[in-house]
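Researcher: I'd like a candidate sequence for this fold, 126 residues long. If you have to choose between options at a position, lean toward the conservative one.
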């Protein structure tokens, strides 16, 4: 099953699928760099099918906490000089959880994310 079919199945089953701002940024920057206009159009269209969660100040504060905690424990998710989108993604998900939403990050990178929030391989979420 490809990602589009997976999303459609989740939506039909009544699940909410959300794109977090940091995820959009990480995909969009590469599509812009490589001038993939069709991919950009698909990414923009995705927001009309699923929800979009903007990046908030609270999420950035939490991301800084996650970043520092990971380094204190010897479990960094990126080099110290990197922006570290993984901790920002986790912070956005943690914010949704704090607001009372059941939140699972659907990813191919469980290892870096599950330290902070619930994350599963997207193909294994049903």
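Model: Candidate sequence:
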């Amino acid at each position: 099953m490809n990602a589009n079919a997976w999303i459609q199945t989740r939506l039909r089953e009544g699940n909410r699928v959300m794109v977090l701002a940091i995820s959009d940024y990480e995909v969009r920057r590469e599509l812009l760099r490589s001038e993939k206009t069709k991919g950009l159009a698909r990414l923009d269209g995705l927001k009309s099918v699923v929800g979009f969660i903007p990046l908030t100040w609270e999420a950035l504060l939490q991301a800084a906490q996650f970043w520092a905690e990971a380094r204190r424990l010897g479990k960094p998710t990126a080099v110290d000089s990197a922006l570290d989108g993984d901790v920002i993604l986790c912070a956005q998900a943690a914010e949704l959880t704090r607001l009372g939403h059941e939140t699972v990050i659907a990813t191919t990178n469980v290892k870096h994310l599950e330290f902070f929030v619930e994350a599963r391989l997207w193909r294994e979420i049903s």
